[in-house]
Amino acid sequence: MSTPQVKPIPDGMHAVTPHLVCAGAADAIAFYVKAFQAVELARLPGPDGRLMHAMIAIGGSPIMLADSFPEYGSQDPKALNGTPVTLHLYVEDADKTFAQALAAGATEKMALQDMFWGDRYGIVTDPFGHAWSIATHKQDLTPEQIARAAKEAFASGETGCSAQ
């Protein structure tokens, strides 16, 4: 009798999956539910109550989470004075999602605006230190159109890329 073959990438997972470390992962899950309509998929608390592992889905994309465990070298963005990583979130209505994230407790990092590459785009920082770009694709442009629009935007200083 043969043993069933285990899938190297489990059903529902993608090849690249963000894994966020948060000081207060349970609170982060509640924020993501409120800000981005996340769906909680799993939660595994450790002996001291901190979450060793959790998983949510936003728009069908899985995201893993855990509490920070500095004693094991796992630190959150606030402990590191920020993050160089931005999670990009495409949504049906960037204005609605951006406002919803702010109302849930995020702070504006870059104002939402129409960008030269064809997206309505802005960036927020969540209460746990993670940056999220929020976008709705509004216009299909060729690489040549984008290059021309970028050149014009940078020449006029109107790139929209100046983070606050």
Automatic annotation (TrEMBL):
InterPro entries in alphabetical order: Glyas_Bleomycin-R_OHBP_Dase, Glyas_Fos-R_dOase_dom, VOC_core
PROSITE patterns xrefs: VOC
Domain of life, source organism: Bacteria
Pfam families: Glyoxalase
Domain VOC: 12-137
Name this polypeptide is given: Glyoxalase
Species the sequence originates in: Oxalicibacterium flavum
